[in-house]
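Appendix C: a fully annotated inverse folding record. The material below is reproduced so that readers can follow the format used throughout the book. The structure is listed first as tokens, followed by the designed sequence.
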């Protein structure tokens, strides 16, 4: 078979992922290699959120290559494009935690804006040198968030792809900027880009600074379960495997230049999410003293600029690309709790050292 298989519409060559050692990226790499026999190169800086353990089962897999480095390192990224000749790049790399962006916004500007710009520019120079099918079929897929749209009132319609951008945190503002840069590289230079804006993901390998793994970890450790403000903020939760299947589908069939909103069709208040987790844990791992995990709930000071509600209108990806989430919140959250109960060594490894400093600073 030639490197470029026209019957598939794209080559069985190589894809480059960035941030593949983080939560969504590592799920994506596992799912991809389980389904598609194609080389993956993962460029990751291994910040506090990146964890090589997430992909250690691929150490001996000849299809997987890890490169330690920064998406903002122009020389490194240019060399990677020249060496591996990827047919697509999927950009997961980012600073991703809203609360950290409130304490230290600069890292978010650096990676999410400057880093994405440099990655785009390297991709453009590489793409300009391609020709024929390789040029036509190349894609730059940028992974983004629904938080760029801002906050919804309880009765407002869910976010469509044409909703105005109104980011409220340094995190969402930096992601919004990156989305605009991606769009501009298509409109100005013709680079074939795709953008996905997904809702809140949950599932295996999520760092326990985010709500769901933090609550599971604190509950089992006998610590308080911190709820910001009144706990009535609403998020649309998507199981990470469903976001990965949506990203694969967008890469396969999305129209260059388009954006696609990805949602789990599961709106829940934070208090509901925490209560569901407590109920599952009461069954799966009852407390020795017979009390319910709910008794550990504690209302704490609200997040500054806290968005009240996010909700995704996923009609475009469902209608145009025939994608749907497989997991309901009930099935996805059961799987997630089971994974964390089974992976207490992973949790112990990621919650040592710098994690404790973060928790002390954030929840002091
Ligand atoms: P994460 O924080 O778990 O992982 C980010 C990864 O990027 C880490 O492995 C980190 O080491 C790496 N990274 C950070 N800076 C880098 C740099 N300069 N160069 C190379 N690698 C770098 O994040 P996640 O939750 O997996 O999110 C992945 C992407 O999806 C992000 O772009 C995020 O904005 C977006 N997103 C996340 C969610 C969610 O609920 N987690 C929802 C919507 C969109
Ligand atoms: P998070 O997982 O940080 O995701 P995001 O801010 O990107 O939506 O938080 C999800 C929701 O849970 C958000 O409304 C903030 C809230 N939250 C708490 O109430 N307590 C916590 O300790 C954390 C981390 C989040």
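Designed amino acids, in order:
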């Amino acid at each position: 078979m030639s490197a470029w298989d026209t019957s598939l519409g794209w080559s069985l060559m190589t894809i480059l992922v960035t941030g593949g050692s983080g939560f969504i990226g590592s799920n994506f790499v596992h799912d991809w290699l389980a389904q598609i026999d194609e080389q993956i190169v993962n460029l990751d800086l291994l910040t506090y959120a990146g964890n090589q353990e997430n992909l250690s089962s691929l150490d001996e897999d000849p299809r997987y290559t890890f490169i330690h480095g920064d998406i903002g390192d122009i020389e490194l990224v240019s060399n990677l494009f020249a060496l591996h000749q990827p047919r697509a790049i999927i950009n997961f790399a980012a600073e991703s935690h809203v609360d950290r962006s409130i304490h230290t916004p600069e890292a978010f500007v650096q990676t999410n804006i400057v880093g994405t710009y440099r990655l785009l520019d390297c991709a453009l120079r590489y793409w300009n040198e391609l020709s024929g099918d390789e040029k036509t079929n190349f894609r730059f897929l940028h992974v983004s968030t629904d938080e760029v749209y801002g906050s919804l009132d309880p009765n407002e319609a869910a976010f469509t792809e044409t909703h105005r951008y109104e980011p409220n945190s340094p995190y969402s503002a930096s992601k919004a900027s990156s989305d605009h840069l991606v769009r501009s590289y298509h409109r100005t230079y013709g680079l074939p880009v795709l953008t996905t804006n997904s809702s809140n993901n949950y599932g295996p390998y999520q760092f326990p600074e985010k709500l769901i793994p933090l609550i599971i970890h604190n509950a089992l450790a006998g610590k308080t379960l911190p709820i910001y403000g009144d706990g009535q903020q609403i998020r649309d939760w998507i199981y990470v495997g469903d976001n990965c299947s949506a990203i694969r589908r967008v890469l396969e069939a999305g129209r260059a230049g388009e954006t696609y909103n990805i949602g789990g069709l599961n709106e829940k208040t934070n208090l509901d999410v925490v209560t569901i987790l407590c109920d599952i844990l009461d069954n799966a791992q009852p407390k020795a003293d017979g009390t319910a995990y709910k008794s550990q709930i504690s209302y704490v000071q609200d997040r500054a600029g806290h968005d009240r509600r996010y909700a995704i209108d996923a009609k475009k990806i469902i209608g145009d690309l025939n994608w749907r989430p497989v997991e309901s919140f009930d099935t996805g959250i059961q799987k997630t709790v089971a994974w964390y109960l089974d992976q207490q060594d992973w949790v112990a490894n990621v919650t040592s050292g710098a994690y404790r400093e973060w928790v002390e600073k954030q929840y002091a």
